Write the structure tokens for this entry.
Amino acid sequence: PRQYNGVKLVGEGALPLSGERGMPELARRVLDLDGSPDSTTLALRAASGREASSSEEIDLYPAYVRHLLRFAEPERWPAFRVVMDAANGVAGKLAPPLFDQTPVRRVEMYFAVDGTFPHHEPNPLLEENREELVRRVLAEKADVGVAWDGDADRCFFIDETGQFVPGDFVTALLAQALLARQPGAAILYDLRASRAVPDAIRASGGVPLVNRVGHAFFKQRMRREPVLFGGEVSGHYYFRDNYNADSGFLPALLMFDLLASKRATLAELLEPLRARYFISGEINSTVEDVEAVFRRLRERFADGEITELDGVSVDYEHWHFNVRASNTEPLVRLNLGADRGDLMEEKRDAVLSVIREGA
């Protein structure tokens, strides 16, 4: 949403600056510009040969495009027809120089950067923001639809039949593509995901590692452990060889690589996942007492395997769920998966009734 638009600040090694790390030092250095510089600022000036307030304009697009293309083999792709929705965000600036280096025939939607987002909110997780892209994919008889959020660090896919691809299915496919290159690697996934993700990782010879939700927890763990790739159902995908940072463009490149190598459509690749894994999507419930909800869940589902890595997760043989609290609102969020569609609906309703009891 436009009211939450802003600028990301990162330090060396793509580590995000936060109130605890980096921002206090940055604030001190900015204040030094108006007063007497301290020894650190003087040393920086001496090392750089510039005044602290100097500026320089550098075009990083060519170098960044070369970096991204190292992950893919576009020379092996057919001329995929792809509808791309940049949602008037920054993807509209980078997609042309990147995909101009590939055989992709792109159909552009809202590539003009406009922070008022006049056509739709730049959040493809919401169905209403994907409706026009779906119609365009079908009308153009495209192979794939790709959508980005406003800052283009998240990537989403529509298959050739117009169906949205959930983030855990994307994680499973990307893990398959990457493990074909580096067998035995560890892959990180978030605890909201369906069993499609760990099952696909194991089937491809990898090691699945479950993790807490959130980019900070993914990046920290990927710096501590030898993890090749991490995926969140929210559309964030992290790559060891991209400074452990997320990227909205690498998933698209890797997906096109996978489609080319398998000589299959996206819907064909998804068919075995859609036939075996049935997911609720994230369902929000407003509650007055989060801890009371967690307590009821632990009591009512005590016969399942309960873990509390992030909220309450319960696993049964044929179904599983996680309920987490929102960090900013009086909400809990349910994600549930099952190995049959009717079972998913039955258990979704049962868990929601416990969550909303007394509401």
